[in-house]
Backbone:
């Protein structure tokens, strides 16, 4: 299979894995079981790699990865996710991770978009403006 | 009556006088010519003798003139001509010498003028060369100074930027460390809450 056909097949498999626009673990399992039966091992490896990339990207599209310094309540995380759900027009769920190197505030990443409201970024901008 | 007419008249007078002397005593002459003749006769002047002497003298004078005086005069004239020619040549030579001297003086003056002109030209050329060299040296000096100033200014600006960047980095690092040490969870929680509110706006 060529790279283009592998990408197209992975895209089709991703579409089969969505339930109401969200990746479903049951559907993903069904797709994997079907692939295991229908494809040989040497054909399966590049296709599974492309399928995994697509699934990760789709999952990232539905996640708001929030890095924060200090405590961040679940209500605040939900508020952040709601903000992005509203602005992007799809359901976004929060995934939080504490990182005190950010000093204060938080950084949100949804797919390829990054929103940074941290004190470390402001200090970096201040250093850039002074130099 | 002239002297010559008196002499001619005297040719006939002796014969008549001799004839008369034999016949009668000599009567005093009344004619002035006869008086003169008698006077010359008393001094021994005989007419035919005088005539012969005149002829002899004329022949002698002709011979002298033809063979002595005329060649001598010719030689004298030739000498005079040669002398005049020599004088003329000498004068011409003097004139030529003067002309040559004048030409020589003119050439010397011209050469002197030309030498003076060449010297002045050489001086002017040397002066111009010196001025050009001075101008070139001044321009090169100015260019070197300008380049040095530009390099110094560039170094200064670069150093200032480096110092500013370093100071900024130190300030920010210090601020970050201070914040990291001094921010407690309560403060960070308040800041996160404010950031959420900022995001919602």
Residues:
């Amino acid at each position: 299979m060529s790279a283009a056909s592998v990408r197209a097949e992975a895209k089709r498999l991703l579409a089969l894995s969505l339930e109401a626009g969200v990746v479903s673990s049951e559907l993903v399992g069904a797709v994997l079981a079907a692939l295991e039966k229908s494809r040989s091992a040497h054909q399966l490896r590049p296709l599974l790699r492309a399928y995994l990339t697509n699934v990760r990207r789709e999952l990232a599209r539905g996640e708001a990865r929030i890095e924060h310094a200090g405590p961040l309540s679940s209500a605040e995380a939900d508020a952040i996710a709601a903000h992005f759900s509203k602005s992007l027009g799809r359901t976004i769920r929060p995934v939080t991770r504490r990182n005190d190197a950010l000093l204060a505030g938080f950084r949100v990443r949804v797919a390829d978009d990054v929103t940074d409201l941290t004190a470390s970024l402001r200090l970096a901008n201040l250093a850039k403006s002074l130099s | 009556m002239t002297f010559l007419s008196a002499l001619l008249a005297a040719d006939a007078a002796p014969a008549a006088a001799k004839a008369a002397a034999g016949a009668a005593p000599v009567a005093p002459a009344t004619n002035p010519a006869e008086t003169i003749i008698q006077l010359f006769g008393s001094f021994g002047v005989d007419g035919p003798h005088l005539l012969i002497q005149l002829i002899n003298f004329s022949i002698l004078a002709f011979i002298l003139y033809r063979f002595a005086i005329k060649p001598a005069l010719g030689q004298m004239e030739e000498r005079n001509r040669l002398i005049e020619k020599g004088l003329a040549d000498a004068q011409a030579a003097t004139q030529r010498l003067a002309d040559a001297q004048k030409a020589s003086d003119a050439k010397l003056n011209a050469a002197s003028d030309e030498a003076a002109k060449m010297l002045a030209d050489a001086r002017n050329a040397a002066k111009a060369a010196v001025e050009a060299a001075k101008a070139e040296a001044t321009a090169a000096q100015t260019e070197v100074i300008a380049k040095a100033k530009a390099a110094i200014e560039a170094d200064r600006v670069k150093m200032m930027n480096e110092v500013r960047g370093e100071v900024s980095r130190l300030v920010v690092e210090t601020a970050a460390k201070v914040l990291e040490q001094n921010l407690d969870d309560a403060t960070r929680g308040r800041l996160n809450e404010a950031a959420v509110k900022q995001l919602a706006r």
In short: The mean pLDDT of chain B is 84. The longest helix of chain B spans residues 47-182. DSSP finds four helices and no strands in chain B.
